[in-house]
């Protein structure tokens, strides 16, 4: 395989921000596949507030169904212990052996990689597509990343995503407050949330 992208996330729930970022990266870097990898127990989040993985996985499957380049991978869910990006990258490389591997994250999430374990190994293994909002100050991100050697900095590619204002946190809040979440995420996911009475 020439080019492959990983879209990791909690997906609680998955929304159009994730889908637009993934589609934009797929097109920009001509990826043959985008793997959506729902996290089992992200080390940087309070696990008790995260929905059961069965729900997050089901919603992710519903959301990617209409894009033939999108696929859901359960490799983080099935791997024992906490989920680290480097383990996922290594596993994906072993399975697909892509010439180029891209890891799609929000620009803010990229800043977390500095504190991730094995950051240098991670940046030598793949590119990072840092989704930013039009108008977002990239120089700020660059400045914060400046502690990294230039060869690694080059592996972080800022990319503008128009749907960046959408977040899972906001969607959960809206559901709780009885507000509409229509047009923020795919309809089958919206129906799933209603049917399973999530986020109430
Ligand atoms: P939460 O509000 O619970 O943190 P989230 O909306 O940030 O949820 P995550 O599952 O945490 O969703 O995000 C997975 C990845 O997608 C992260 O790298 C995050 O930065 C990125 N992302 C989230 N929302 C958007 C968006 N609207 N546009 C582009 N990327 C996004
Ligand atoms: Mg987030």
Task: Describe this protein with a few key phrases.
single chain; 200 residues; alpha/beta; Rossmann fold; 6-stranded parallel beta sheet; 10 helices; 6 strands; 42% helix; globular; binds adenosine-5'-triphosphate; binds magnesium ion
What's the gist of this structure?
The chain is α/β, with parallel strands linked by helices. It has 10 helices and 6 strands, in the order βαβαβααβααβααβαα. β2, α2 and β3 form a beta-alpha-beta unit.
Report what the structure shows.
The chain has 200 residues and is of the alpha/beta class. It has a single domain, classed as 3-Layer(aba) Sandwich (Rossmann fold), CATH 3.40.50.620. It is built from ten helices and six strands. A six-stranded parallel sheet has the order 3-2-1-4-5-6, sandwiched between helices. Helix 2 links the parallel strand 2 and strand 3 (70-72). 34% of the residues are buried. The mean pLDDT is 90. It binds adenosine-5'-triphosphate and magnesium ion (MG).
